[in-house]
Amino acid sequence: MTQTSNEKTGFLAEEENTGNQPHNNKLFIETVGCQMNLLDSELVVGALRQSGYELASDINEADTLLFNTCSVREHAEHKVYSQLGRIKFFKKDRPNLVIGVMGCMAQKDQKLIFKRAPHVDLVVGTGQLAEIPRLVQEARNDRKRKVAVSLGRKNGSKLEISSSFQSYDPLRDPEMRPSPYQAFVRIMIGCDKFCTYCVVPSTRGPEQSRPPSDIASEVKVLAGQGVKEVTLLGQTVNSYKHTENGKQYRLADLLELIHDTNGIDRIKFITSYPKDMGNDLLTTMRDLPKLSRYIHVPVQSGCNDVLKLMKRGYTVEEYLEMHDRIKEIMPDCAVSSDFIVGHPGETEEAFQKSLDIIRLCRFKNSFIFKYSPRPGTKAFDKLADDVPDKEKKRRNNIMLDLQNEISEEDNYHFIGKEVEVLVEGMSKTFIKKGLEPDSETQKVQLMGRTKCDRIVVFDGNRRLEGSLANIGIYDCTPTTLLGMIVTKEFQHGSEEGLPILH
Ligand code: SAH
Ligand code: SF4
Ligand code: F3S
């Protein structure tokens, strides 16, 4: 093994063999994980396209294969390792392939990936994404393995560690966005909360906020490309803090700064951290008309003993106080949460308390996860994984049923009401079933979201995509409101004072 550059930034290279081979310029990428990973993949593909690559939807067609990975639960890692297993022999017939593993698992497992999957050429962490086009090229030319990762959280000074994690925010390629009307905008990287169960502080590095002026310019560029809705991304987005030209910007200030960008209709942000939910942020949200009425602020557990073991830094009472403040300042604001079931020390009584907090807060929806012990975390080292998997599954199902019941009850209140949605595109079902527009009316099944992030499905012409539309709701499921486009009569009230839907 030879070291090719500064050890502090962790760039290493290893020898391999085989000569230069002809190759096609097709790129296949598979992404697992959170919105941050979706954004990273979009940006990496954009950069590779600028170097002449073209995206392929079939893994068998491409000579460059990238896997953007997640380590948050064991299952996410399994998925990638088994996919890597499936392509183990691809190089037999196509020795010119370059296979790269990028993202959180690359940062976490580093060279271990070569041991488990010797056919991998590149391992690129979350802090080195800008290097990918160069590394792919080099790996293809010299057929040597490349590892580009950041420092571990204990392997240097705070400054050294932070600077080894570079936020990747190049110019945007409009063609690479999953939707022309929506875009993610990174405002922070990393996390310093160190919840005991979580790998993110080590896979994404120290918390670092991007300069507000860079974010504002990016939003302007996106608006110029036709984007109507931006979602600001960060692991604890309401902890945003950056000083520029002598002024300290918190999330509320950043929202004010970008709010009046021409062309942008909606602004969202995920994920919020309960302890950092200041009233300044809530009142700013209330007063800015483009801000969505939606906050994703995970509680994780409804039991103080478990919250303490998780080191979440708040009690159930403090979370409830924060929840009350949200509802007091914005009564129409939807709140959603994440829960971990079967965390070490979660007794049946503790689990019941998590159900209680769902009943109390009536979350719009909750993402529920079975605890997964993660090597390298405090919980892995110090707490026994003492809830059997069968029991985790049981708790997961019970919680899901309760949440669905509440979501459906709350959705039910929308029936007969009119909501404004941003039309995102064709509905998932319409796409999945491969349906065609109605031959007479050209209508398809569209989907959009309300200001409070509820999904609405309705029939309409595709020309509505990217616009705001008023929809009358006539039915619902736990996850979806079903509606119809509203006529003018509905907006102004029909003769009988009844809504007219068509
Ligand atoms: N930064 C966000 C969430 C990041 S990870 C926050 O603090 O809320 C997304 C979710 O995955 C977490 O909210 C948590 O519910 C879940 N999660 C994280 N680590 C986990 C683990 N080891 N096992 C199971 N779920 C986990
Ligand atoms: Fe993980 Fe906690 Fe940071 Fe969220 S706040 S990313 S759960 S350590
Ligand atoms: Fe997974 Fe990394 Fe996101 S571990 S959840 S892809 S920050």
Please give the domain count.
Answer: 4
How much of the sequence lies in strands comes to 15-25%
Bound molecules: S-adenosyl-L-homocysteine, iron/sulfur cluster, FE3-S4 cluster
Span between N and C termini?
69 Å
| Low-pLDDT residue spans | 1-19, 488-502
**What is the CATH fold-level name of the largest domain?**
Rossmann fold
What does the model show?
The protein has four domains: 3-158, 3-Layer(aba) Sandwich (Rossmann fold), CATH 3.40.50.12160; 177-292, Transcription Regulator spoIIAA; 300-410, Transcription Regulator spoIIAA, CATH 3.30.750; 418-485, OB fold (Dihydrolipoamide Acetyltransferase, E2P) (Beta Barrel), CATH 2.40.50. Helix 14 (348-361) packs parallel to helix 16 (389-412). Helices cover 34% and strands 23% of the residues. The protein has helices at 35-50, 74-86, 90-93, 104-109, 112-116, 132-142, 158-164, 200-204, 212-224, 251-259, 279-287, 304-310, 316-329, 348-361, 378-382, 389-412, 428-432, 488-492, and strands spanning 11-14, 26-31, 54-55, 64-69, 98-103, 122-124, 145-148, 182-186, 188-189, 208-209, 229-233, 241-244, 247-250, 266-270, 294-296, 334-341, 366-370, 418-426, 443-450, 455-461, 468-476, 480-485. It has a seven-stranded mixed sheet with strand order 1-7-6-5-4-2-3, with helices on both faces. A five-stranded mixed β-barrel has the order 18-19-20-22-21. It starts with 10 loop residues before the first strand and ends in a 10-residue tail after the last helix. A hairpin with a 2-residue loop joins strand 12 and strand 13. The model is unreliable at 1-19 and 488-502 (pLDDT under 50). Bound molecules: S-adenosyl-L-homocysteine, iron/sulfur cluster and FE3-S4 cluster (F3S). FE3-S4 cluster binds at residues 33-34, 36-37, 70-72, 103-104, 199-200, 203-204.
